[in-house]
Amino acid sequence: MLKQVVCVLLIALCLMHSATAIKCYQCKSLTDPNCAKDKIDSTSNVRSVDCDTAVRPNTMDQLQPVTKCNKVVTSDRAGTIVSRDCHFESIGQKDNECTVTHSRQVESCYTCKGDLCNASGAGRILAMGATALLAVLALQMAL
Which of 35, 91, 118, 138 could form a disulfide with 27 if both were Cys (CB 3.0 to 4.6 A apart)? Predict the structure, then answer.
């Protein structure tokens, strides 16, 4: 019985979403060429922000607490811009949907949970795989 309780708690911890704000990289490739790199590392000198204190867009109503980061690629006739920031979601917004406050076309939108997870676009797949692996191990322990 104790094994089953431990397994249920482990699965719940794996799937639980954080209710507190996180730290994200914040940059635009227009002003920082390092922002356009595939992966940001410690030598990139890209600024990180605490999403609790980050400036919120004034054009979005009913923002929810920030629990995700994003990497958004937009384009227009002038070219492509990569931006990384806290992911501000409004109530009713679809999951993994990025909105921009200007007239650029959103080419791709990557959202993730975890401090500085918007360093690259591969973190989500890695996180989902790790969660699935932990869930399978927890189920095996329960049997």
Answer: 35
For residue 48, which of 142, 123, 120, 117 has the smallest C-alpha distance? 117
| Whole-number Å distance between alpha carbons of 74 and 122 | 18
Q: What is the pTM of this model?
A: 0.66
Report the distance separating Cα 108 and Cα 110, nearest Å.
7
**SS3 of 93, please?**
coil
Sheet holding 69-76, edge to edge: 27-28, 79-86, 69-76, 105-112
Which is nearest to 90 in space by CA: 99, 78, 82?
Answer: 99
